[in-house]
Amino acid sequence: MHSNLNIKERLPMGMDNAIRFGVFLPVFVRGTNFDLILELTKFTEKLGLDSVWSCDHLLGVESVVKEPSKEYPPALESTVTLAALARETKRLRLGTAVSCIPYRNPPLYAKQIALLDVISNGRFELGFGAGWREKEFIAYDIPFRPFSKRLERTKEGIYLIKRLLEEESVSFDGKFIKIQNCQINPKPIQKPHPPFWLGAIGKRTLTELLPFADGWLPPAVSLDFIKSREPLVKEVEKKMGKRILKGIEFYTAIDKDRDLAIKRSNESIKEWFGYSIEEIDDLFLGDKRMKVELESSPFREVGKPALAVGGPDDCINMIEKYIKAGLSLFVLHFMPILESYQQLKIYAEKVIPYIKEEFG
């Protein structure tokens, strides 16, 4: 299968070396609704940012460390949401961060991707991954296979999606998918296809799936973690003869100063990560007791998260560090996420203009 992948060397439309800022939409938390999402998206475009991104959760989520004690929050389905937003915007790019390929029939999803790109006039970007949240699979009657099988299915699915978007007609007899004379019409506007971003951090996943991607969009991992994966990224670039762009889901809380930003966000940060911002800082100070705690924390493997809490200068300083490590896309995940509107305005006035002037 792999000898015929024919992955293009050049970057798709809309991808270059410029520093780009997007907003992670609050499509999955208590209190959200489509009108709020639409208002935030229009405001993002008005302020001149580059993109908005929807997660692909089927059940709402308010924490990465525990399930909700009550009923699940609302969760807006990503494909329908982005299609609706596409008709209400003109310039803003629209992406998934990230789509779970095992949730879907890949040929049908390829057709949806193509139409999303047509509806948006060539502004769609596909983030993809293998999925991880077992409760969502079970709730929606989707088999939750062992990781190795989910990875295989994702690899076959994304390979087939790329072929279907590029070729006139595809027949395929795979391990998981079998199709005859499948045709996607209309084709996407972006050629050879919309930009593909891989949202994953494991070595095996990156090795297997990054060759299919144009960019790497991990969650809020540390600089040290990104640097530890750099040899693997370089190996894929050399093998595939193309550059892999790097971005990040960048958690942040911004206010006039750090004290106000902490006051604004600490409850949300503790709910999401299991620790307050002060406790997260303490985990990485070197204290023996905290080192033991770190071993059982969600940061055990990925290091201190990409979490910028403070005034404009604090946020600028952290973003600069990630830019110097080679990252060019920052998907801003505001804490608390339902206050994205207020915080986005500060970013647009105080942070983004400086970064764009400094780094282009």
Summarize the structure.
This protein has 360 residues and is α/β, with parallel strands linked by helices. The protein has helices at 34-46, 78-86, 106-119, 134-139, 147-166, 203-209, 223-240, 258-273, 277-283, 288-294, 312-324, 340-359; strands spanning 20-24, 51-54, 93-96, 99-100, 124-129, 170-173, 178-182, 196-198, 215-216, 245-254, 307-310, 329-334. Helix 2 (78-86) runs parallel beside helix 3, helix 3 crosses helix 5 and helix 11 (312-324) crosses helix 12.
Main attributes?
eight-stranded parallel barrel; globular; single chain; TIM Barrel; 12 helices; 360 residues; alpha/beta; two-stranded antiparallel sheet; 12 strands
From the alpha carbons, calculate the radius of gyration and give it in angstroms: 20 Å
Q: Under the CATH scheme, which architecture would be assigned? A: Alpha-Beta Barrel
What is CATH's topology name?
A: TIM Barrel
**How many E strands?**
12
- The average pLDDT score comes to 92
Q: Report the structural category.
A: alpha/beta
Number of domains: 1
Tell me, what is the CATH class? Alpha Beta
Q: Approximately what portion of the residues adopt beta-strand conformation?
A: 15-25%
Low-confidence stretches: 1-11
Biggest sheet strand order reads 1-2-3-5-8-9-10-12
Helix-strand topology string: EHEHEEHEHHEEEHEHEHHHEHEH
Biggest pleated-sheet summary: 8 strands, parallel, barrel
Q: Kindly, what is the distance between the CA atoms of the first and last residues, rounded to a whole number of angstroms?
A: 40 Å
What is the CATH homologous superfamily assignment? Answer: Luciferase-like domain
Number of helices: 12
What coarse outline follows from CA principal-axis ratios? globular
Helical proportion, percent range: 40-55%
